[in-house]
Structure formats: C-alpha cells, structure tokens
Design goal:
Largest sheet: 4 strands, antiparallel
Strand content: 15-25%
Distance between the termini: 58 Å
Helix content: 10-25%
Structural class: alpha+beta
Number of helices: 6
Radius of gyration: 21 Å
Order of helices and strands: EEEHHEEHHHEH
Shape: globular
Number of strands: 6
Length: 209
C-alpha cells in the first residue's frame, strides 16, 4: 500500500464518547416544573460511607446521620420543595422530591435566569442554555439540579469536617413521576431497598468503610 495515497477523511470528533458524558435530562422539560422526582445520588466510587445493612435494616454511620439530617433540611432552604419517601443506603440515597412552585415564581419567567451560575452559550440572549435553551436546569430558579447541588455541597462540607476524603459521583439520576400509581410503586421500592440490598446493583464488591 502506498502510504502517500490520500486516506478517507475521518469526520468523527477525535475524542467522541471518550471524555464527554451525555446529559440524561429531558431536553424539553423544565426541572423547576411542578412534579415529583425520584432521585438517586451515589457516593464517589460507590464507597459505603453511610453505613451498612444488617439483617435487612440500614445501620447508619455518623456520616450517614449527616446525610439523613440534611435531606430533612431541604424544605427549609427551598420553599418550593417537599420531601416524600427517602432512604439513606450504604453508598447512595433514594428519595422523592416534590417541586411545587409558588404562584409568584410561576408568573415571573425571569426568575429562571436571575441566579444562573453558568451561561453556556455565546450566541446571544435568545440562545442561552445551549441546545436546551431556557429548559437548561442551570437557568431555573430552585430547580431540581439546584436543590441537589445544594444538598451535595452541604453534605460534603459537613462530612469532611469529620472524615476527609468523602465525595459524590458527579451526576445524579432522576425520573419524573407521572402519576400516583408510579409514585406508590417508587415509595414501595424505597421502603424495600434495605431488604433487597443483596441484589442491589449499587452494592459494591468491597466491605463498608
């Protein structure tokens, strides 16, 4: 083969799929909208910082107690959010958060932009929020992303006062709860989570800390 022959052009990005993690958010959904959300947050490396399961019951460590205490505090910092069923597991948290915006927030669309941290587009005001536009969760006041960001940050701050090295996975998983039937099924799943720990896909191969 002649090494000087022109080669087919590779139009694929050089690092496509290697470093970038695609968003799991629905692009046409505002995560500040009134709805219930089933949230799962995992610790970094799925390490069992929060305790261990003993005979089907969760035995929380001091770190796990902090995680539980701060989850209860979410409504104190976000008046538009109520907590439903939740469970602190050895290396993750399952919980239902219910967002119910006030009438004042709903009537003022500019509140979506007032406290945005990142402006990811450089194409003008009408293109803020990148490909998701104003549905970008970073442009929403008291959105699900902002609530979880506060919770993870507060946990990290308080936990690292007693145990250096604690961390979270960068992202979190969520499902929009469509109806009461789905909510009841999720509630039951959360309640049964400690009992089903042996079969849990989040269970790590290493012992608890």
């Amino acid at each position: 083969m002649n090494n000087h022959e022109p080669q087919p052009e590779n139009k694929q990005p050089k690092y496509k799929g290697k470093y970038r993690v695609d968003s799991i958010r629905l692009p046409a959904w505002s995560y500040a909208s009134n709805a219930g959300y089933f949230v799962t947050i995992c610790t970094y490396g799925k390490k069992c910082f929060f305790g261990e399961i003993v005979q089907g019951e969760m035995q929380r460590s001091p770190i796990g107690e902090i995680a539980q205490k701060l989850w209860y505090e979410i409504p104190n910092h976000f008046s538009n959010c109520q907590i439903d069923s939740f469970c602190v597991m050895p290396n993750h948290i399952h919980g239902i958060l219910v967002i119910n915006q006030t009438q004042e927030d709903a009537m003022n669309p500019r509140t979506r932009e007032e406290d945005a941290i990142h402006r990811v587009s450089t194409r003008g005001d009408e293109q803020r929020g990148g490909v998701t536009g104003l549905f970008n969760p970073m442009l929403s006041k008291n959105s699900l992303s902002k609530i979880i960001r506060w919770y993870k940050g507060r946990c990290s701050f308080e936990i690292n006062q007693i145990y250096e090295g604690f961390g979270w996975q960068e992202r979190f998983h969520d499902n929009i709860i469509r109806n009461e039937f789905a909510r009841d099924k999720i509630r039951q799943y959360i309640i049964n989570n400690p009992i089903n720990w042996e079969c849990d896909c989040e269970q790590p191969p290493h012992p608890p800390l």
